[in-house]
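Appendix B: complex inputs.
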Amino acid sequence: MKIHEYQAKELFRKHGVPVPEGTVAFNPDEACHAADKLGGYPVVVKAQIHAGGRGKGGGVKLAHTADEVRQHAAAILGKPLVTPQTAPEGRTVRKLLIEQGLNIEKELYLSLIPDRATAQVIVMASEAGGMDIEEVAATTPEKIIKVMIDPLLGIQAYHGRQAAYGLGLSGPLSKAFMQLLNKLYALFIGSDCSLVEINPLVITTQGGIIALDAKMDFDDNALFRHPDIFAYRDTHEEDPLEVEASKYHLNYINLGGNVGNMVNGAGLAMATMDLIKNSGAEPANFLDVGGGANAEMVENGFRIILSDPNVKAILINIFGGILRCDILAEGVIEAARKTGIQVPVVVRLEGTNVEEGRKLLAASGLKLMTATDLDDAAKKVAGIVGA
Amino acid sequence: MAIYVDRQTKVVVQGITGKEGQFHSRQCIAYGTPIVAGVTPGKGGEKMDDVPVFDTVAEAVGVTGANCSLIFVPPPFAADAIMEAADAGVGVIVAITEGIPVLDMMRVKNYLKGKPSRLIGPNCPGIITPGECKIGIMPGPIHKPGGPIGVVSRSGTLTYEVVHQLTRQGIGQSTCLGIGGDPVTGTNFIDCLQAFQEDDATRGVVLVGEIGGSAEEEAAAFITAHVDKPVVGFIAGLTAPPGRRMGHAGAIVSGRSGTAQTKIAAMEEAGIHVCRDLGKFGELCARVFS
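Resulting structure:
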């Protein structure tokens, strides 16, 4: 799960990681009020959306007076912000972060991520702050310092020294950095993060070290033990169909293509999407109904796929293992009857009780096209899309 | 011959009294797997059908001699269950549980370092040596006993799909296992490839991967250096957009890494026969393995 910058900074502040003074604002009046409270100009007006590259898209503005704050706020709020990381139509801005301006001496980069291969936490730090870190990694990998931390051991003083000296910090600044890193690590572990990124982490002309930006992603599987973080979820930042699907514990992702699909199992679902693409169509979605799907889940999945206006055909691909094909056929038939089908539906069933399942589908009177195997399913989808 | 599990395997099921644990334990027993014990804390002394239930894994192992554990414990408690099994000296630990937090698994992985236990999974369908034992949730009847092909995969139902196509072509399997769809798993492709390479009953290998991470690229490099048996591969997720988690926590293209294209290129470079059309997977295998 992603959260906004202002929410991440709230967590930083709570955990003792220095951040600039700032307040979230939902309209130009609030923005002006927030700016006045900061005790001096300039201030920074920052659009809050779940996508990076906001500066490049015009979503971050410097303001020297209250009037300028009002102007920028009015120009940004309620309008779509297009950045290199958003879809071409952009993302509507609903909130702003109004923050004190800083006198910046130097910009650094700092992030923590779990490394799947070694099962360690990687601290990545670089003097090349403010830039796209993937770009830095590709062009000047020597500018990135990596420190690996065993989660059983936790962060030690030498980890901090490796990072601080690697960044060329010394004296009180290196001490402040190591303190910040310790607190950030505690926050990372304590809230089950899948990413904490500060880009840039700035050194001010006054010699302070402050997180000018803050990005945090969380492990969805661990949200059950962090209700406070789950409360940060902003469904405005998600696709409406995906929000609807999440209510029924369906794993659905809208992909914008023309052939909808419903599959049991994530790997088979991805392979089915690829199969649709091979047939000359574009997958409209990813939908994994899981191994324990019941008639109700199938029905809701069906309804969500059909409510996508781009869908011109549907492919249902179920490998009934433990789940019997006749039970699944009943679910599909019930769902089709209740929701009605306006587009061709190809059904491919395989596995336990497959003959009974196929018989039920054939006898249902519904206009379902049954496929004997995956190859046949692909051909039928191609036939529909080509027609 | 087979890898990791065979007729000598004696299984303890952790979480045997839960809905899933009960259902799948019965299926495994019906397949012929010797399930000798169950563990559910607080239910020691009870029975699940004819299987004695214990409070702790150590007790179950001490009394029954179980050497393999099958785990159905819910995600919040699953990491603890895996470590308990390893602590009790269980040799092969198969964790079916889906949705274990990544940090929990990172701790488990580091805890297991230097211990003799092998963890398969989590978030996997388990392992089956057709005709000998089934330790997991896969449907038994789609498999064909007697070898000669080993199957290793990151996915569940996609594994059933390829196994089914193998069986339809008359090609049997030595051992089939899912290593799991999570970012951090106990056993990786390389472990399995090495075991299949050393297994006399295995004459060819099927490797099913998906987007995310770099396990397939590492497997390809290992095959170049150490595997002389023919390998047929498949990668799911060519159409997956970057930055989106495709169901499995591990299936995510992040930045420039983990794409299907780079994986397929690395696999083909290593001489793996990569199948581009899943509908014709069985036919390709029949050609390569004949």
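Chain A is about 35% helix and 25% strand.
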